[in-house]
Amino acid sequence: MTSLHVLATGPMVTVQDRGRPGLAHLGVPRAGALDAPAAALANRIVGNDPDAAVLEVVLGGLELRAHGGCWVAVTGADRAHASAEWLAAGATLRVPTPSTGVRSYVAVAGGIAVPPVLGSRSTDTLAWVGPPRVQPGAVLPVGDPTGSPRSVDTPRPPRRGPLRVRVGPRADWFDDDALDRLCATPYVVSADSNRIGLRLDGPALPRRRQDELASEGMVLGAVQVPPSGVPIVFLADHPPTGGYPVLAVVEEEDLWQCAQLRPGDEVRFTPARAGSTG
Amino acid sequence: MHLHPVGRSAVLAEVADAAEALDLATWARSARVAAVEVVPAARTVLFDGVDDPVALAARLRGWRPSGELPAGDRVEVPVVYDGPDLAFVAEAWGTDRDGVVARHAAVEYVAAFCGFAPGFSYLSGLPPELAVPRLESPRARVPAGSVGLAGGWCGVYPTASPGGWRLLGRTDATLWDPERDRPALLPPGTRVVFVPR
Q1: Carboxyltransferase domain: which residues (chain A) (predicted)?
Q2: Euclidean distance between CA atoms B14 and A98, whole angstroms
């Protein structure tokens, strides 16, 4: 059986698939690849099922040695296009630090076959449900390939645009023009952004109501506004419930961008057109 | 019931209180409404992963509170009452340690919703006059199995974590085990009784 020996990791490497939806009522985040289109592309290139698990690599630094030859593909970060590469037995795959973007995805034909937890191989970094983060010395089992590698595929939109937003459930807790203000000025990505949320610096959004919100269910892409008035966009590992009002919700199709924004990058919001589907 | 749109594929239903939220969530699950997530909370139910929010909203408008108590499983949780905040709670309740144990163990709680951590259930049922404030500053580490109070809620920490609840005691019951068929011991709707050890 093929396996991958982890020689080195950068800041963080986790196993991710499409996550574990349906368990929020038990307090379990959905997790899953943060740049979902890039992860899906990597799987398609090596002929995997869309549910196969890949490696999510933050800022490169990953080195893997194949024990048994396998097809691999690396997507995400600064790679708009990718192709399947044959990694011979004993050969080493290195994922360098990207020149732009943050997260790279490594798919291997057959998928990373660590045991699933609650139906998913994703690591959730809020409650640490799922497999442990990938450390040097780990040996990752690889499943049996189910398809053939493909050389040509359609990448996700490689260019970033403003994050399209729709109205959130607590817009009435803010000044009437709060959504316009959110969309009027650029925000800057803060260094404490992670898989839980994209934290921003920028102008505060004034609240009309100062009382405390009872905890309520939160969606992926929720633009939550804490008392500081500076928004946080909830990403895959967000807590299933939260107590700050949600002004807006980022369209799911645009969330991949949040996976690739670096601290200091500028980000803008824009209203989604009614009836638009992506 | 107020319905709020939440982006393109979710609806937040606002109801009177946690009991109504649980009632609505229980109804929605049994009626198999088309949502990936049905998340009851303190005064709301979130329906997420909804293909047709307009159709869902129309169905939800047909719901009326049943007025019945949830008929979920009844789980007994054994507790050793030796928590660091027993004296504080005794003072707040105008009783002594044995009085706290007697009052806390006399209630049949209902798991209203989960949050904070996997398997952490907010248990309702404590009489409102027994509500206690959270710690001014949370403890850096609360051991797994700690039984505590915050406001009118009772809860048991499934795993070790920071926390600001007033701790009454501890249980060796496993609140959360992802390998189990039912990973959460106390999912929403469960009736819960604490049994002094």
Answers
A1: 25-274
A2: 45
Residue with tokens 């496993």, as numbered in its chain: B174
- Phi-psi region at A68: left, alpha or beta (left = phi > 0; alpha = psi -120 to 50): left
- Bin B70: left if φ > 0, else alpha if -120 < ψ < 50, else beta: beta
Q: In what order do the strands lie in the sheet with A266-267?
A: A266-267, A187-189, A197-201, A232-234, A222-224, A246-250, A163-167, A269-271
Which residue blocks in chain A are alpha helix, DSSP H? Answer: 36-45, 178-184, 255-260
Burial (0-12, 13-18, 19+ Cβ within 10 Å), A208: exposed
Nearest CA in chain B to A238: B116
A87-127 pLDDT, tens digit each: 999 999 999 999 999 999 999 999 999 999 999 999 999 99
Q: Which residues of A touch B (CB under 8 A)?
A: 21-28, 117-118, 127, 129, 166-170, 214-219, 221-222, 239-241, 246, 248-252, 272
Of A117, A167, A217, nearest to B46 by CB-CB distance is A217
| Interface mutation target, options A18, A20, A23, A26, chain B, most CBs of B under 10 Å | A26
pLDDT at residue A153, rounded to an integer: 67
Confidence of residue A251 (pLDDT cuts 50, 70, 90): very high
Q: Using CA atoms, how far apart are residues B85 and B154, in angstroms rounded to an integer?
A: 14
Q: For residues A107 and A57, give the distance between their C-alpha atoms in angstroms, rounded to a whole number.
A: 11
> Which chain A residue lies closest to B2 (C-alpha atoms)?
A169
Whole-angstrom distance, CA of residue A237 vs CA of residue A220: 9
Q: Report the distance separating Cα A203 and Cα A229, nearest Å.
A: 8
pLDDT digits (tens, 9 = 90+) for A157-187: 667 899 999 999 999 999 989 999 999 999 9
Give residue-wise pLDDT tens across range B55-100: 999 999 999 999 887 778 999 999 999 999 999 999 999 999 999 9
Cβ neighbourhood burial of A31 (10 Å; 0-12, 13-18, 19+): buried
Contact yes or no for A113/A142 (Cβ under 8 A)? yes
pTM, 2 dp: 0.94
State the Cα–Cα distance between residues A212 and A170, nearest whole angstrom.
12
Distance from C-alpha of B164 to C-alpha of B52, rounded to nearest angstrom: 40
Query: What is the identity of the amino acid at B192?
Result: V
